Amino acid sequence: MATRLAGIDENIADAARNAGRSPDEITRIVVTKFHPASLVRELADLGVHDVGENRQQEFTAKAADLADLPSLRWHFVGQVQTKKARAVRTAASAVHAVDRVKLVQALDRAGEGLEPLDVFLQVNLTDDPARGGASPDGIEELAEHIAAAETLRLQGVMSVAPLGEDPARAFARLADYAERVRRIVPGATSMSAGMSQDFAEAITAGATHLRIGTAITGARPAHG
Ligand SMILES: *Cc1c(COP(=O)(O)O)cnc(C)c1O
Q1: Are 189 and 21 a contacting pair, CB within 8 Å?
Q2: Partners of 153 in the beta sheet?
Q3: Which residue minimizes the CA distance to atom 8 of ligand 1?
Q4: What is the pLDDT of residues 23-51, one digit of tens each?
Q5: What are the helix (H) ranges across 66-113?
Q6: Does the structure show a pLDDT above 70 at 224?
Q7: What's the gap in Å between 7 CA and the centre of ligand 1?
Q8: Going by CA atoms, what residue is nearest to atom 11 of ligand 1?
């Protein structure tokens, strides 16, 4: 895994330089879903700070197992059910898939007395509402709700490239949406985009947070 991690970091640095950007402005999150806590511990030993999970129960259990590693920053990258908002918020440093007003309200209510939570506004780049993410015409309204939530800090936008579309094209669209969000929250300069197969295209489009799983961890174990 050390070799894969170093190789990906080299590819990230190359893609950044090719885009005229500094690798320092890019956060590489290792998505560890379905892998055991022991793998996350191994990553921490390799110097990884940012890790990502996408299912609340698995996330809560792993974060508890690894509570002795305060250097870990947990990014929740999956869909959040409103009734799980408190559980997610308890252990996450950032929530990437904030895509509806009800979730903004649930996360905000769960934040009373806690540190502010970094959140990303997820945009759906497909025409399929089932894919998760706010539809582009709802971006402004959602950004305004997040801006008004006292315990949330809007970092920027997040998305997953649609299957069957050139990711470069999809991420260029996301960059336009990011600009619309910045008109409402000027500090929301981040873009969470890019996975194992398309992080180079995401970097070209301006991604600041990459969510990379299998290219670093290897294949995920079967899950039920
Ligand atoms: C699993 C997952 C990733 C990582 O995917 P890989 O293809 O393994 O790199 C990134 N983002 C989200 C939202 C995920 O669920």
Answers
A1: no
A2: 118
A3: 213
A4: 999 999 999 999 999 999 999 999 999 99
A5: 85-91, 101-109
A6: no
A7: 18
A8: 211
